[in-house]
Amino acid sequence: MMVRLLLVLGLVMTTAPLAAKPLIFAHRGASAWLPEETLAAYERAIADGADFIEPDLVPTKDGVLVARHESNIAETTDVASHPEFAARRVVKVIDGRAQEGWFTEDFTLAELKTLRAKERLGALRPESKAHDGQFEVATLGEIVALAARSKRRVGLVPELKHPTYFAGLGFDTPGMLVAAIKGTAYLRRAPVIVQCFEIATLKRLHKELAEQRNVELLQLIQGPEVRQPADVVLASGALTFEDMVTPAGLAEIATYAQWISPPLRRVIPLDAAGQSGPPAALIADAHKAGLKVSVFTFRPENQFLPVNLRGGDANARWPQGMVADVRAFVAAGVDGFFTDDPALGWAALAPHKG
């Protein structure tokens, strides 16, 4: 399958072998093709060559970790079509931002299991939208069991979403994840990289998972639109994400984490015309601090590509563009990357992944 894909893209024997071997992190599964965070999306991601699959973790009312990008499920499930849940539509403020919708923490797992996933980017991804209504909300346990059934070793790169917010509601989501890692045979031996935007959570996990040699920690870095981590804001701290990507900030991160993951354009910025340019110093600075670097998120649609890598209609998929973008980051020295389309990530790395 991968060779056929390379032939279609015109990439076989046309590009020099790449020097690095970055890890492919399936962003919410193969979410370019199937509704995100579903077992079907994770199963396809594994088949398409992902090294790790990513569940974003949020709690249910009865304390089960489930995979949803946010606890607000208005855009990613059919909850709005369930009249029995109409009264649960509310407005909440999460990390300073007001949201209206339905939230996992107000539903038991049994209630969530009556819902079905739907594609959030339906206008851009008709292939995925065609599967609306077919798949349940998946639990962390179900995702781990899927990975454990794989014929090859597949890692997990779970993200703890808004742990400070959930702590305020009485949910200890970091503690729930620690218990799952220590209490599940597969998670005690498989590669696990736990990611979070919040610093205090990662420092806590650094202590509580110190004996788990298969576990690494990843500090997520926001783009310029978000100034500070939520836990720093709550503590009235001064540290910003801009501070965190300085040499001094990276050295501090290295005391509790092994990875950082910034958005793509912190690493290879776009110019005023929206075209990709030379890489910034961030990867080199992070490597000097002893940190590995992943980036998020590669998507195959023109809307998400630099102007100079687009082709075809504005809303179309342009696989060649994503492959070229990935290869620019590989040349810059990235150690891993998140993508909605792991098969294209594999294609970009095919000279040394086969």
Mean pLDDT: 93
**Content of β-strand:** 5-15%
Q: How would the global form be characterised?
A: globular
CATH architecture: Alpha-Beta Barrel
Largest sheet, spatial ordering of strands: 7-2-1-13-12-11-10-9
CATH superfamily: Phosphatidylinositol (PI) phosphodiesterase
Q: Calculate Rg over CA atoms.
A: 20 Å
For the record, the count of structural domains works out to 1
With helices defined by DSSP (H or I, 4 residues minimum), what is the helix count? 16
Order of helices and strands: HEHEEEEEHHHEEHHHEHEHHHEHHEHEH
The CATH topology is given as TIM Barrel
| Class by SSE composition | alpha/beta
The first-to-last residue Cα distance is 12 Å
- Poorly predicted residue ranges: 1-20
Features:
354 residues; alpha/beta; eight-stranded parallel beta sheet; three-stranded mixed beta sheet; disordered N terminus; TIM Barrel
Topology of helices and strands:
Blueprint lengths: L1 H8 L13 E4 L12 H9 L4 E2 L2 E4 L5 E3 L22 E5 L2 E5 L7 H4 L13 H4 L10 H9 L6 E2 L2 E2 L2 H6 L4 H11 L1 H5 L2 E5 L2 H10 L6 E6 L9 H5 L6 H4 L2 H7 L5 E3 L2 H4 L14 H7 L3 E7 L20 H14 L3 E4 L2 H12 L1
Parallel strand pairs: 1-2, 1-13, 2-7, 3-8, 9-10, 10-11, 11-12, 12-13
Antiparallel strand pairs: 3-4, 5-6
Helix pairs in contact: 1-16, 2-5, 15-16
Structure, explained:
- The chain is an alpha/beta fold.
- The chain is 34% helix and 15% strand.
- The protein has one domain: Phosphatidylinositol (PI) phosphodiesterase (TIM Barrel, Alpha-Beta Barrel), CATH 3.20.20.190.
- The longest helix is centred in the C-terminal third of the chain and has 14 residues, at 319-332.
- It is globular.
- The relative contact order is 0.15.
